[in-house]
Amino acid sequence: MRALYAIASAVVALALAGCAGGAGNSTGGTAAGRPLAGAALYDPAHLPAGKMGALVREGYNIITQTHKFAKPYVVAQMQCSSCHIAGGTIPRGGYLRIAGHFPQWNKRSHRAIALQDRIAECFLYSMNGKPPAYDSRTMIAVVAYINWISRGQKTFSPIDPAVRIARIKPPAPPSVSRGAKIYAAQCSICHQATGAGIPGQFPALWGATSFNKGAGMAKLAMMAGFVRYNMPLGKAGTLSNQQAYDVAAFVESHKRPAFDKTAAIAFPPEPASFF
Ligand code: HEC
Ligand code: HEC
Question: Which terminus of the chain is more solvent-facing, meaning fewer CB atoms within 10 Å of its CB: N or C?
């Protein structure tokens, strides 16, 4: 299964990079992701020297192996890269080349937020966990990684829709029963009939080990847009808009963890001498 998944990932990475007009992970091909001709967004052989390079590498490791490197902060059986495909280097696949867009106005919280706040949201909802403190090494490593893959991006540049997960509309209202058939034929081999996936290999789509109800991916339109361009892994782009909606409606018809909006988040205090 591991080998199948590795091959499937390679295929999907190539297929998607093709849509973006780049080679491998090398460019986003969009206004927000252009200036890196010939350079991979993330290449472990080309990182800043010394301790900063080590920090960027650590951020990449946290995004791709969240359970190993940020275990205290996550509950869901998924990695950041379960939704931010290839470490967030692929347009339409949860692209993370977005550092220049922060601070930004956040409609959900009715305030301007920093990149750390947006990362905290994904820890809270998508990983069904709790955010690391903003001055913790874990948070700073993730920020360093996202800044690194955003290098050259202009600050306060308008958000390019191509970097977002696609927003598509279904031709007809989605059908859970049609979605169930698509799921059995095209998804359950990896995500399993139970929706729980296989820990460490295939992420959970619903149930106790999946993302919670507050997550962006829990919205039907967001999941349909993600599935349309990124799934089934290895055959990305083969579903129609309608099929993507139908199968997303089937996935979303199952139970997932609740999100407690009233919970307060406390971070450890720092001694004044630290600064
Ligand atoms: C269950 C899927 C899922 C997981 C797991 C997940 N995210 Fe996200 N994340 C999303 C979605 C969906 C969005 C919104 C994307 C959009 O609007 O196009 C998002 C957006 C973001 C953004 C803002 C991107 C932008 O376009 O402004 C950041 C930063 C981010 N996530 C970081 C993380 C980090 C760090 C982790 C791991 C701790 C993580 N995410 C885990 C689904 C996920
Ligand atoms: C060949 C195995 C495979 C197949 C088939 C497959 N997936 Fe996935 N899926 C994955 C993997 C692996 C990831 C995590 C992304 C990564 O690691 O590149 C993923 C991620 C996801 C995610 C985001 C993460 C999460 O847990 O919510 C969704 C949603 C999803 N798949 C839905 C589907 C749907 C719907 C289908 C069927 C149309 C499908 N997948 C078919 C392997 C597969």
Answer: C
